[in-house]
Design brief:
By secondary structure, this protein is mainly beta. The protein contains 2 helices and 9 strands, in the order E-H-E-E-E-E-H-E-E-E-E. It has a 9-stranded mixed beta sheet with strand order 2-3-4-1-5-9-8-6-7, covered by helices on one side. The radius of gyration is 16 Å and the shape is globular. Residues 10-161 form the VOC domain. It comes from Yinghuangia aomiensis. InterPro entries: Glyas_Bleomycin-R_OHBP_Dase, Glyas_Fos-R_dOase_dom, GlyoxalaseI/FosfomycinResist, VOC_core.
């Protein structure tokens, strides 16, 4: 049966939290053979966000947050919507599930969710600026996002890629568990 409410294109990316980005990069690139496709340094020393290409236009992504709580089953969800506060979650937790949607349906889907009584956060046009997002879409935007919670408080995202990811999008060395960057940028 097809979805009659939203034209979902599968999972855009699953965003998890790791304890050590260097170890995570090593496992997903060297053990599983995935390509590191995008690296993001979060503003104000708040961590990193790296994307691995799973194939088929789908990605698995990891946050590394300095000072994040240790792995703790049951501490697995954000208390706020991205763009409205601190979104850190524990090591080995699931931060959010992202569903890929068509870029031309973005505003329509936001209105549709809100009409159904779902509170959405601000639209975030992710870019390489110091803040990592802009309220407006521009040529540096690589993905548009809107976030909302399910009834159990699981953070969900509708995301639309606005451009292909390129080799230059991997520009940050991964941090280890103590916040020390690797000597080299993976794939550079």
């Amino acid at each position: 049966m097809s979805n009659t409410e939203f034209e979902l294109g599968g999972v855009c990316h699953l965003a998890l939290v790791c304890q050590d980005m260097q170890r995570t990069v090593d496992f997903y690139t060297n053990v599983l053979g995935m390509k590191l496709a995008k690296t993001v340094e979060l503003p104000n020393g708040n961590g990193q966000h790296f994307f691995f290409d799973m194939g088929g236009g789908q990605f698995i992504a990891f946050f590394w947050f300095p000072g994040a709580p240790e792995r703790a089953p049951g501490v697995a969800s954000s208390a706020v919507l991205p763009g409205t506060g601190d979104i850190r979650t524990a090591h080995a937790s699931m931060n959010h599930v992202s569903f890929k949607i068509p870029v031309d349906k973005f505003e329509e889907y936001k209105e549709k969710l809100e009409a159904k009584g779902v509170r959405t956060g601000p639209i975030l046009n992710h870019d390489d600026s110091e803040r990592t997002w802009s309220p407006e879409i521009h040529e540096g935007t690589y993905v548009r996002s809107m976030y909302f919670f399910d009834p159990d408080g699981i953070l969900l995202e509708f995301a639309a890629w606005t451009r292909e990811l390129r080799d230059g999008d991997v520009a940050h060395a991964p941090y280890d568990a103590d916040g020390v960057p690797a000597a080299t940028i993976p794939g550079a």
